[in-house]
Design a protein that fits this description.
It is built from 5 helices and 2 strands, in the order E-E-H-H-H-H-H. It is an alpha+beta fold and about 150 residues long. The protein has one domain. Strands 1-2 form a two-stranded antiparallel ribbon. Helix 1 crosses helix 2 and helix 2 runs parallel beside helix 5. The termini are far apart.
């Protein structure tokens, strides 16, 4: 017999039933597996992002965010390539969450890109900021497409 779960919220000190539904052990297990897949992939992706960022930034100019650019462009290529590579396969939902939402989500970083572009504008480096934004977006989309096409060959 499934256990009935109630989600409640507080309104002026009184509780009111918001949602109630039946939930089974199987549903909870599937949800936990998906969350673990995202967490594991995200952790690995974030570590890989940090290592690539450090490597690239140490070997290039500090005046331009080459590390973040390299990470985001590599991630763009990988998502295109892996999207095509796994298309039509029997890859489970958990593996898709691990790779795409977890690993690639943890690997690439739009928020860092946005902060760095804003920082460049803040210090008056408008041309550098515009170059960074254009290269990141235009080349990023081209790399998704290139990765997709390469995997389809």
């Amino acid at each position: 017999m499934p256990e009935r779960i109630y989600f409640e919220y507080e309104i002026l000190g009184k509780y009111a039933k918001l949602v109630s539904f039946n939930i089974t052990t199987i549903t909870i297990t599937i949800l936990i597996m998906k969350i673990l897949a995202i967490m594991t992939g995200g952790g690995l992706g974030a570590v890989c992002r940090y290592l690539l960022f450090i490597f690239v930034q140490r070997t290039t100019s500090q005046a331009f965010p080459y590390g973040t650019l390299a990470v985001n462009l590599a991630g763009s290529f990988l998502i295109g390539y892996l999207w095509a590579f796994f298309e039509g396969t029997r890859l489970t939902g958990e593996w898709k969450l691990f790779i795409f939402t977890g690993f690639l989500g943890g690997f690439t970083t739009f928020s860092t890109f946005a902060r760095e572009a804003t920082q460049l504008m803040k210090v008056g480096e408008y041309k550098t900021a515009l170059t960074y934004m254009l290269v990141s977006n235009v080349i990023g989309i081209l790399l998704v497409f290139s990765g997709f096409m390469l995997a389809k060959r």
